[in-house]
Amino acid sequence: MFKPLHNYVLLSRIEEENKTAGGIIIPDNAREKPSRGRVVATGAGTYSGDKLIPLTVQVGDTVLFAKWASSANEVKIDGTDYVLIKETDILGILE
């Protein structure tokens, strides 16, 4: 498995519904990439001086992240697509 370093988080995208509230089906090529994901792995955190500040998100959390995050990298690991992103580009945890 892959273990991110520092404040990076590995996410698997959660696909959005392909139908609008009115029942219109959105074709695959017109859909935006979803900005929801499930945390698959996290780094240890960041250092402030000698102190390690752990990440807020945990494996299994469902999160909302910035669509155009500058730190987001699409990666493929063992044939599966993931997003590698800094925790600061995660907007919140969905409960």
Structural class: mainly beta
- CATH topology: the name is 10 Kd Chaperonin, Protein Cpn10, Chain O
Number of domains: 1
The DSSP helix count reads 0
Q: What's the mean pLDDT score? A: 85
What are the key terms here?
single chain; 95 residues; mainly beta; 10 Kd Chaperonin, Protein Cpn10, Chain O; six-stranded antiparallel β-sheet; two-stranded antiparallel ribbon; 8 strands; 0% helix
Describe it for me?
The chain has 95 residues and is an all-beta fold. The protein has one domain: 10 Kd Chaperonin, Protein Cpn10, Chain O, CATH 2.30.33.40. Helices cover 0% and strands 42% of the residues. The protein has no helices and eight strands. The strands form two sheets. It has a six-stranded antiparallel sheet, with no helix packed on it. The protein has a two-stranded antiparallel sheet with strand order 3-4. A hairpin with a 2-residue loop joins strand 6 (73-77) and strand 7 (80-86). The protein is elongated and about 55 Å long. The model has no long low-confidence stretch (mean pLDDT 85).
List the helices and strands and how they pair.
Layout: E1 8-13, E2 36-42, E3 46-48, E4 51-53, E5 62-65, E6 73-77, E7 80-86, E8 90-94
Antiparallel strand pairs: 1-2, 1-7, 2-5, 3-4, 5-8, 6-7
